[in-house]
Amino acid sequence: MSYYNSAAAAEGAGFRPCKRCQPDQMAPVGPAARIAKACRLIEAADTPLPLPALAEAIGVSPSHFHRQFKAALGITPNAYASALRERRARSALTRGAKVTEALYEAGYSSSGRFYATASKVFGMSPSSFRAGGTDEVIAHTVCPCTLGHVLVAASHKGVCAIYLGDEADALRAALKEQFPHARHEDAPPDFAKTIAVVAALVDAPGAPCTLPLDIRGTAFQRRVWDALLRVPAGSTVSYAELAAAIGAPTAARAVAGACAANQIAVAIPCHRVVRRDGAISGYRWGTGRKCALLAKERAEDADNALAPKHAQDPRS
Predict the structure, then answer these.
(1) Neighbours of 25 (CB within 10 A)
(2) Range(s) of the domain holding residue 193
(3) Residue of 160, 209, 270, 291 with catalytic role
């Protein structure tokens, strides 16, 4: 019996490859390679590709492709294409392209479809974004709270930032870094009502937020933040569990990134996300504040559990 160190050496000695297992052929394409190919096809297309066409191009059924894509990236092929169009439009507007040029360059099929999503994507009109957001006004104020200081900022649409920290100046600097082109103004006197609601929310983070919010983020980030709003007060969830809840069980790292990108502390409760072993870590405003918020929520739950239950009036 003879042994060879490689298939090439065996072929050189006159042996042929097995016709059944075909070791000389390329290995079967795995799911990761299929998804990578699909992403490249989506990126190269001038207009959105239908799901059946994408599935056929990578050699699987549409339903199987849709499941594999969402499991791998945490979003659907359509959401991936939408995020790609948003990024292209943002890039085109940033370099000064006209709005009409930007929307068609990005791959939008019509101006109506573009304008329908533009406010959510850019947080302002496309023309305002093209001008660098210079006509957007962000009103803000900073005041002491039980966790140090809280900054509350709002656009004309609603609260766009709630920051927690030790120093007022540092919080204001962070706001300007996040919204560099906006015109920053001190909040008007009637903003005191909004501040009171936020301060109460810091003290009782288990209460629902009643303020209008101006939430800005990618499609994936918004899905994560929506899932956070469904986590019950007083409870915690791991990054992996949150990833599974949005249908992306392999996207725990991306979920952690979305939590870190949350600009609206407490109202979007990213403090309820912990490590798999239950350890407290990774809170933008400090792990001490994360522990304090969770402790407040658990105390609220305990108080509610101990509260006397009033007997129902039998006449009702």
Answers:
(1) 8
(2) 137-199
(3) 270
